[in-house]
Specification:
Order of helices and strands: HHHHHHEEEEEEEEHEEHHHH
Distance between the termini: 40 Å
CATH architecture of the largest domain: Up-down Bundle
CATH superfamily of the largest domain: Butyryl-CoA Dehydrogenase, subunit A, domain 3
CATH class of the largest domain: Mainly Alpha
Strand content: 5-15%
Strand order of the largest sheet: 1-4-5-8
Radius of gyration: 21 Å
Number of strands: 10
């Protein structure tokens, strides 16, 4: 890995997450992948290590870091299990709307418990008919005095049912389309708020995915994030900052797969010598390493760009998510190939890494959507920002 000149605190985060990964996650990742249990014991360890609040301002109990710190922690944890690390990363997705758009009262109420690891967060935007087309949401929030009444269902929500704090986008004015959407903070246990079945997934099986079901769920106006009608601004502003987190998950999964491929290539002997001596295998490993490092450079640069206070970074955020996840899918596939028949067996971790990598090309906007975002920004820039 190249020297990215991380700060002393960033190196401490990286080293601590690596230690947790080696000692605590690696021995149990197969268990959680098989059972689909939620890794509360690992969450507790992350909380005790003060990892849960690395991206939360110090004023609210966090370590005062930003996107870069979230990326470092997510990448290192994902190196050992992309599913277990997702409980941390998905909480970030549900928390950033509060950091970015919450009132002082909302921040004081919710951020300290998230920073301490006492509570997890989740983000509710996707629906059965509103995935890539986020403007197609049907969940409604009808105003009733000082309250809003939510009705509808959110689908494929990471941390669903396990998290206590949810950021949910619903339509408050259908006639205005996407401009009629509003973001709310909804707490687990609110009457009318329940959860659907736990989804049976191909990968990231240690992460829980459920529906959020709203049936005349009354939310006080104090739970509105930003202002009424700002729902999609909240959602898009959040996703632009959290897509590097998905990219970091992809990086970690890919790095874990490369580690396993290199290790196996040195141990596996064929024709009287380790397969690492064969040029065909060497070229595969070299390509995996080059693309992985290129992806890491892009992700780190984007995270630093966001933390520096730049106002526009949607294109770069889409680039790092798209590129890193494509690289992760290629690297994990090639890791399985390097291990040959063993790579296809569950007793070796690379088949799991390949399954885990796939989702990074899909959630928080498919890679096809990311390419659309990148291209539309390029065209707009070429037109002087007039289109």
């Amino acid at each position: 890995m190249m020297n990215y000149y991380l700060t002393e605190e960033q190196m401490m985060i990286k080293d601590l997450c690596h230690k947790i990964g080696v000692e605590k996650i690696k021995p149990v990742r197969e268990h959680y992948d098989e059972t689909g249990e939620f890794p509360w014991d690992i969450i507790k360890l992350l909380a005790e290590a003060d990892i849960c609040g690395v991206y939360i301002p110090a004023a609210y109990g966090g370590l005062g870091g930003g996107v870069m710190e979230m990326v470092i922690a997510t990448e290192e944890l994902s190196r050992f299990c992309g599913g277990i690390s997702l409980s941390f990363a998905a909480t970030g997705l549900g928390t950033f709307p509060i950091i970015l758009f919450g009132t002082e009262e909302q921040k004081k109420k919710y951020l300290p418990d998230i920073a301490s690891g006492k509570k997890l967060g989740a983000f509710g935007l996707t629906e059965a008919n509103a995935g890539s087309d986020a403007g197609g949401i049907q969940t409604t929030a009808v105003k009733d005095g000082d309250f809003f009444v939510l009705n509808g269902t959110k689908q494929w929500i990471t941390n669903g049912g396990e998290a206590e704090i949810y950021t949910v986008v619903a339509l408050t004015d259908k006639a205005k389309g996407s401009r009629g959407a509003t973001a709310f903070i909804v707490e687990k246990g609110t009457p009318g708020f329940s959860f659907g079945k736990k989804e049976n997934k191909m990968g990231i099986r240690a992460s829980v995915t459920r529906e959020l079901v709203f049936d005349n769920c009354r939310i006080h106006k104090d739970q509105v994030l930003g202002k009424e009608g700002m729902g999609f601004l909240v959602a898009m502003g959040t996703l632009d900052r959290t897509r590097p987190g998905v990219a970091a998950q992809a990086l970690g999964i890919a790095q874990g797969a490369l580690d396993e491929a290199v290790k196996y290539s040195r141990e596996r002997v064929q024709f009287g010598k380790p397969i690492s001596a064969f040029q065909g295998v060497q070229f595969m490993l070299a390509d995996m390493a080059m693309k992985l490092e290129a992806a890491r450079s892009l992700v780190y640069a984007t995270a630093r760009m966001i933390d520096s206070g730049e106002k526009k970074f949607a294109k770069e955020s889409a680039m790092c998510k798209c590129f890193a996840s494509d690289v992760a899918m290629e690297v994990t596939t090639n890791a399985v190939q390097v291990l040959g028949g063993y790579g296809y067996m569950k007793e070796y971790p690379v088949e799991k890494m390949m399954r885990d990598a796939k989702i990074t090309q899909i959630y928080e906007g498919t890679n096809q959507i990311q390419r659309t975002v990148i291209a539309s920004n390029l065209i707009k820039e070429a037109a002087g920002g007039k289109e």
